[in-house]
Amino acid sequence: HVKLVESGGGLVQAGGSLRLSCVASGNTMDVKVFGWYRQAPNNQRELVATISTDETTAYGEAVSGRFTISRDNAKETVYLQMNSLKPEDTAAYYCSAKEYGWGGNRPTTTDYWGPGTQVTVSS
């Protein structure tokens, strides 16, 4: 089992920056992908960024060029550096982890989610 806890959210002015952190604990040996997602009121949860075991990264179009995902394996922490923030970036941000394993002699995947951290960008 994997536990994820986000931190670093808050209120920031448009054009400013924030750095989110996600600390993972428990059995993370089989986690292959960490990610950040966000959800604003009345909107569906959308992909922000992902990072794989080989440090391959991917970004949603809305944040490409402004946000950067990274990881520190020694600290078991994933980061999201957010620059040039816009009011439309306002949302609850969630950390995720995808675990690959075996159950009942068949391959399985398990997704874990943190409780989220709120980011509010004022105009």
Query: Could you give the count of β-strands?
Result: 11
Low-confidence stretches: none
Radius of gyration: 15 Å
Q: What would you call the shape?
A: elongated
- Structural category is mainly beta
Q: What distance separates the N and C termini? A: 40 Å
What is the element string, with H for helices and E for strands? EEEEEEEEEEE
User: In percent, how much strand structure appears in the residues?
Assistant: over 45%
Question: Roughly how much helix do the residues carry, as a percent range?
Answer: under 10%
Mean pLDDT: 96
Largest sheet: 7 strands, mixed
- This entry's quaternary arrangement is single chain
- With helices defined by DSSP (H or I, 4 residues minimum), what is the helix count? 0
Structure in words:
The chain is an all-beta fold and 123 residues long. The chain is built from no helices and eleven strands. Strands 2, 4, 5, 6, 9, 10 and 11 form a seven-stranded mixed sheet that branches. A four-stranded antiparallel sheet has the order 1-3-8-7, with no helix packed on it. The protein is elongated and about 55 Å long. 27% of the residues are buried.
Features:
four-stranded antiparallel beta sheet; mainly beta; 0% helix
Topology readout:
Layout: E1 2-7, E2 10-13, E3 18-26, E4 31-39, E5 46-52, E6 57-59, E7 67-72, E8 77-82, E9 91-103, E10 106-113, E11 117-122
Parallel strand pairs: 2-11
Antiparallel strand pairs: 1-3, 3-8, 4-5, 4-9, 5-6, 7-8, 9-10, 9-11
